[in-house]
Amino acid sequence: GGASGSKVLPCSPRPPPLHGSQISDYPITAVSDTLAEELGAFGADGKKGSGVMARRGSSHSKVTITVDEYSSNPTQAFTHYNINQSRFQPPHVHISKAGSFMVNIPESTFRYTARPSQHPRLRAVKSFRFRWFRFESTHERILVPSFTYFPERQDAAENRVEPIPYDAPKPASHTRFVCVSDTHSRTDGIQMPYGDVLLHTGDFTELGLPSEVKKFNDWLGGLPYEYKVVIAGNHELTFDKDFMADLVKQDYYRFPSVSKLRPEDFDNVQSLLTNCIYLQDSEITIKGFRIYGTPWTPWFNGWGFNLPRGQSLLDKWNQIPEDIDILMTHGPPLGFRDWVPKELQRVGCVELLNTVQRRVRPKLHVYGGIHEGYGLMTDGYTTFINSSTCTVSFQPTNPPIVFDLPNPGSS
Hints:
15% of the residues lie in helices and 21% in strands. It is built from nine helices and 22 strands.
């Protein structure tokens, strides 16, 4: 069941299969998180490991990259994604089946300046969010991500979803959800539309100070929604008990106002949210809809609820039950409203993507975190909503996103 009242443009009825070294049969396994694990995929015996293989083609150190069927036609991939192939495949670079690795990566990311070396060598190059393999030899350099699945471009027509106008009548036997996120204590002046259930996916404060939480709770108390469901984000520092335990042990200059708090000031900070249902790795059933909320995000500058990519995050996602109707996370999955132009990167979580598409398959996946990614997408089954209210400049000008879902059991 898709959502009534929204316009979903044609696409496949089921998500396309994922490709790449991070994919395996159930249970889902994490992307290799250490260089040693990644290097283990490239055996000298020529056997394929983790879906990607490198082999020396000749004594002249020519390197061939062999990947799965998704990347079998580089030319078609470059054409499909409107990429200038000549910028990525200079004459001295030998690329075999590596074309679709390059999708969604700006041209400036790639440099093919050859460095003389006696033997080809494999180096892991860590960028802001992705780890790359760089194969270097006397004649060539090839950059390949350590995982090979790149979803469609954020603006691809087949992925677009049109939001429901605020004045559109709600269909019978439906529930209207109003989605906001990343309000950052800037709720004054936000025009809130009609709806039944409010979903707020975190960063409702700047630092999680008790005074900020009380202000947010007062705002919630003035809203007319029958149910209000809230999760924390990385800015709700005081909600992350492990983070606070570490913070109070040191004079941490980044968050002086939080560091000065006494434990009794924040031990029960969640109890200040009296006007909503607060979820933290937990679920609630509302009007027959199973809703699960979790605050964790990939590590970013040491904020709250940050975890390393890979197994640590996957352990959290594995707690999400199957058959959830609405999933609330603070951050996006890889490839769905997660593009950060300033960093020239997609920053979503690949483990979350796998969990959503391959196991949980909710009707709605609502999140925020990445202010630049505001908007809606679909993979043909799940509707992805980045409802960040604040822009990248922290102006609360992105309007709430409204969505209708048919009530469970309704015809």
